[in-house]
Amino acid sequence: MIEDIELETLINDIYEYYGFDFGSYSRASLKRRVNRIYHLDGFKNFYEFLSKVRYDADYYKNLIDEITVNVTEMFRDPHFYKVVRTEILPLLATKPFIRLWHAGCSTGEEVYSMAILLKEAGLLHKALIYATDINSKVLETAKKGIFPLRAMKEYSENYREAGGLEDFSNYYIANYGVAKFNADLAEKMVFSQHNLVSDTSFNEFDFILCRNVLIYFDNDLQKRVINLFDESLSMLGFLALGTKETIKYSISTTKYKQLEKEKIWRKIK
């Protein structure tokens, strides 16, 4: 088990050697993830581990990928997607072009969920989804649009609960235990690496989704990220966060109107 002071040493060394700043990450979450890797890789003591991180760049990259991976699924929290389908997309439909940003997209399940909603609303042809994550490994998975076939039963149920009326299996081809999602969905996606800790705004968006990422950050970093989203959001655009996340302590809430019962805000000034 890594001690708190050892975790701080690791954070400082990673910043010094590689320029990656974990300083604003929630310590409890970070410690849990680092301890898991420390035990899985069988280190005898902390300094053996620290030395490996310092001097083995490939190991460091793998460590970052393991620490920053987030759990996700298609149509996660179906009611959220139902609200997007019935309340948000009809408003975005009036625009000549729709730009969406999935920040912290992980392996892409939620990106494909959004593409399906846009397709069913007849909006995919005039939309572009920018999907970003800090983790290069999960982005490679997301780009392929290939997910385990065993998950499709659950995803299909989520889809139906989210108001889906099609046969969910029409959206993918099943083969050798995997489901490959249709290429027409991926045509409207742009995947790239983006670090919410240090990178800046790169476009103006009508809809930004960053669900269950801020819970891993401390209050200061949460404020920074919310401000980044505010800068990146067009007037009357929408911001969606995870069920345990809020903009309340980060920005003037008079600029935003929250949708009832959902962690979705509309920029009104």
Describe what you observe in this structure.
This protein has 269 residues and is an alpha/beta fold. It has helices spanning 4-18, 27-40, 46-55, 57-68, 78-92, 109-120, 136-144, 152-161, 183-186, 219-232; strands at residues 98-103, 127-133, 146-148, 172-175, 178-181, 189-193, 205-210, 233-241, 256-258, 264-267. The strands form two sheets. A seven-stranded mixed sheet has the order 6-2-1-7-8-10-9. A three-stranded antiparallel sheet has the order 3-5-4. Helix 1 (4-18) packs parallel to helix 3 (46-55) and helix 3 (46-55) crosses helix 4 (57-68). The model has no long low-confidence stretch (mean pLDDT 94).
Topology:
Elements: H1 4-18, H2 27-40, H3 46-55, H4 57-68, H5 78-92, E1 98-103, H6 109-120, E2 127-133, H7 136-144, E3 146-148, H8 152-161, E4 172-175, E5 178-181, H9 183-186, E6 189-193, E7 205-210, H10 219-232, E8 233-241, E9 256-258, E10 264-267
Parallel strand pairs: 1-2, 1-7, 2-6, 7-8
Antiparallel strand pairs: 3-5, 4-5, 8-10, 9-10
Helix pairs in contact: 1-3, 3-4
Summarize the structure.
By secondary structure, this protein is of the alpha/beta class. It is 43% helix and 19% strand. The chain is built from 10 helices and 10 strands.
Return residue spans where pLDDT drops below 50 for at least 5 consecutive residues.
none
Tell me the strand order in the biggest sheet: 6-2-1-7-8-10-9
Number of helices: 10
Instruction: Write down the overall mean pLDDT.
Output: 94
* Apparent shape: globular
Query: How many beta-strand segments?
Result: 10
Order of helices and strands: HHHHHEHEHEHEEHEEHEEE
N- and C-termini, Cα separation: 49 Å
Largest sheet geometry? 7 strands, mixed
Which percent band covers the strand fraction? Answer: 15-25%
Helix content: 40-55%
From the alpha carbons, calculate the radius of gyration and give it in angstroms.
Answer: 20 Å
Structural classification: alpha/beta
